[in-house]
TrEMBL record:
Domain called USP: residue spans: 473-827
UniProt GO cellular component terms: P-body; PAN complex
Protein name as annotated: USP domain-containing protein
Source organism of this protein record: Psilocybe cyanescens
The entry's keywords: Cytoplasm, Exonuclease, Hydrolase, Metal-binding, mRNA processing, Nuclease, WD repeat
Localisation: Cytoplasm
Alphabetized InterPro entries for the sequence: PAN2-PAN3_catalytic_subunit, PAN2_N, PAN2_UCH_dom, Papain-like_cys_pep_sf, Quinoprotein_ADH-like_sf, Ribonucl_H, RNaseH-like_sf, RNaseH_sf
Amino acid sequence: MATSYKPLQPPLDPLPLTGFAQEITALAFDPVSDILWTGLESGTVTAMLGTRGNKGPTFRVGGNMGVKKITPGDNYVRAMGNSNDGLGSWNKGGANKWSFRPSPENIITFSNTPPSSSFMVASLDSLEMAFLSPVTGAPIRRVSTTSLLTHLELSHSMLVSGSSDGFIRVHDPRTGMGRANGAENFVKAHSRSIEGFETLGNFIFTTGMGERLAISTISRSSLYDVRTMRPLPPIPFSAGPAFIHALPNRTSSLVVISIHGLIHVVDASNPAASIELYQLDFPSYATDNPSYITASAISPSATYMAFGDNDGRIHIMSQADGEIPFNGYDGQPVPWANTPTPLPEIQWTKSTPLNFIGMPHFDTQLLSVWPSNLTSKTPSYSPPPRIPPQILTSMKYNENIAYANLPKELRGRRNMTNAGPRRGIGRFRSGKNATESEPETESFDRDDDEVPRIYRRVEIEYSKFGIEDFDFGGLETHILHSYTNSVIQIMHYIRPIRQLAKGHTTINCPEEHCLLCEQGFISLMLEDAHGTNCQASNFCKTVGFLAQGSNAIELMDYGREGTEVDYAQKIQTFHRFLIDRMKSEASTPTQNPALLPYGMPPQYPSISPITQILGIAGQNVIMCYTCKGIRETHHVTHIVDLVYPKKTVASSDLPYLTQSLKSNEQASNFTSILRSSLFRQITHKATCQLCKQFSNFVSRRSISSHQLPPVLAINASVYNDESFAFWQDYRNSTFLQPQISLRGQIGGIDDGEEAIYKLRALVVKITRKDRKSHLVAIVRVPEAEKQGLNSPWYLFNDFVVTNISQREALSFQGKWKVPAIVYFERLNVESILDFSHLTQKLDPSILSQDTSISNDRDRSLIKHEFLAPNELPKPGTLVSIDAEFVLMQQEETEFRSDGTKKVLRPARLSLARVSVLRGDGPRQGTPFIDDHIHTSETIVDYLTEFSGIEYGDLDPALSKYTLTPLKLVYKKLRLLVDCGCIFIGHGLSKDFRIINQVIDTVDLYFIRARSRRLSLRFLSWYILGEHIQTGNHDSIEDARSALRLYNAYQELEGQGLFDQKLEEIYREGRQYGFKPPALTTDSEEIISSISSSHLPS
């Protein structure tokens, strides 16, 4: 047999029954028969018999889309298609043996089945692995995964997966989770999704996107020792690898194929050795429509290679000198298609019963069993009633939906319902009386009796004024990624993190999207809000941007809530993502402040402030059992993942399991489990660098008590009933304690010094009966501790905040309440950390600096003049402000049959331009800020008629204006607020609802009894005699008009004429419809007459 490959002519042509060529989507050689199994674009699997390509049995996989994967065995063929119609197993004659169709999930891929394995694994798009019986296809169990698995390889000792985020992970085949007794079980192979995946001997081969097109090879021995799971030098492949296969008869060789038919055979252990190159000869007719490779396969003996193309042909390359079977030997005979069992012949006579004819089996009663006494002898169907003409004349249409109000004359008792007693408190501000104080704004779920009311999921019921018509505390939920609200709240009440975040907002942060900056802004807002609701919209927007940029799809929120979302796992994944981001964002190698009094450890010369607060820096002591050699490595972690003791009883009943696990209090209390998670001993196998022997190693973390962090961040890692049994209340005692004592360990010996920690906050998942869940935060509020309240514990259920007892905070009585994140603080945390080096005030010179990032700014369009040093604001300085917005998300509305509508999610606006003018002094009315705001999000509507913003104005490459990042604009406005400036504007209550120092002209020129507020355009025309907003809106013009209206109010009030003039405005404004007349010659005469009679002298 030759060692090189040569093509067989002509190519095979598996023409389907339709007569039209179809793209080859999957290929697989049979291991025991002379068959090449072929998957077509129509979802059909066909057996190609031998090198001549005779057609054998054919069967459909399901659906009308292409076959995605085929795996043949000794007596079966397993396959799945792209139509998400499940996974199935067939015998080689084409008869289906079983099918697995999960609902509503879809199958991404499935694994092979080794001869000794009693299960196979399928990957689902719900971030789960399903373990199946290979005999019946019945699901055995499901295991959650951290990302979408696109490749699976199963052996007798391990399960290896490749995922959409570029990671290779090793799973324990018995559980599907990460392998125990290992420091790591994954490695980042590619920057994006893994495209090709193959295993052979001691190697894993992958293809995917990196800095260049290449193949990464990773030693498989690292699957047993994660620390040695390092990539070998990549193998370059300039044509771009599309498919990858291992050669079965060569220990370390693989075949790499490009879509253009270039075949590269290379030895992975010695890439510099001679290589084999082949080029498929595509037919010349395809020059106008180039052919490309769509599927490939290698025979079990490596004698044949098969390649399918988009034109429906299969190209065969062979090493054989003659014609030998695909499998290399005379194996099982070629199967024939299964024929249906013939119907039995029936000899009909007068006495032959009709039940000889087979009928489908129904497990429910048919309609034919309807009782005859309930059936009308003369059925009649009344025509639908005619729509009254009063309704037809008032009908309105909205996107093919017609609606109208029911006229009063048609309202009768049939339209009346018994209403419950009305509450005396209005739900919205607009419906409250002056004597009402506490509004009821939250809407609790009322279909779950197990979950207490304060824990139930709350939703905003929007009034016609939107979300600004509420008056409650907490964070709102109408924005995407608002599941992070609970973490935002606990970060706010962890004082060291709050101080660091607020200080970070005052420095010149180079990151446009910075979570630490956004956390600092939210903390400042929450401090100023004093119980008013706040929006974390910029924080949530930044989370979405960074998660998408990092390909962390498990953190994305698409606004679709379902039972498949495990918010406990999701928030713990986000928790780790947040701390990692904050650590890098807070770190400045030349300016990191020393927060710890005992200074920096010598092995860490410049530690991030987040690491100084949360970091657990210690030594990993590793000892070889053979030579007793010891080596030390330094390692820093920020979050402790709890590891629970193994299950000690076989019972799966939770109460009995709880009793068993609680029987040994010394081993199962929270402090013991936390210490074992911190200092657990890990055993592994590897080659010792000292004795050169393959030996057992034991590693243990060594940390002294004073090296324990000031703040301890913990992921609870409660993913099953066995773990939750530790947390469940037992004999009127709680697992979690308000205060714990920890000791460090040095060389396996407890440190004599003791560190006392106090529980500060925790995030909890609340699960309803319908399996939908949400998150709440339970916080021991520091300010409440200082006030000496009965209980400093508060429950933050998004925007509903409730004071609860300590017992309620620590108790876990049922599985509806599951812990996710826990935070502890040292008792003396304020004395341990020194924040005197952090800047807490913004540099006022930012108001005198040009912050534009526009590449093509038109200097003639610059209308603002920066503040001089002697003009920097002081407490009480007047400034006039106006802002313009663009639409980032359309309103989601539900229209009802009676014509009314319910707002499901309000429209989301983003700041697009802000103008701030001097409010007093010799340069009164001159703007010193006029910034257009750069945004990286997609803008749905520029609202040009109302904002004056047009396409390109917010793009750095196209904008002609002063374009500034959103974060810098917030810093400028924050500086004005901190300096005590008084803001003047029209309609500022929406944009500055948590700022007290606001003078709103819409409130100045308002009579509460008239219940009508006057527009800036009408007031400017009537009071100032000016027509504004004649074209697009201009924020400088609007701010200047508001300032002049305030000055006119001051003059009229000083003369004692304001109340009289305000009555005249309402009285005369009614005849104009409270709108200025069109700008004509007659209107100019009206303006001159109004100006002479209404303007103050």
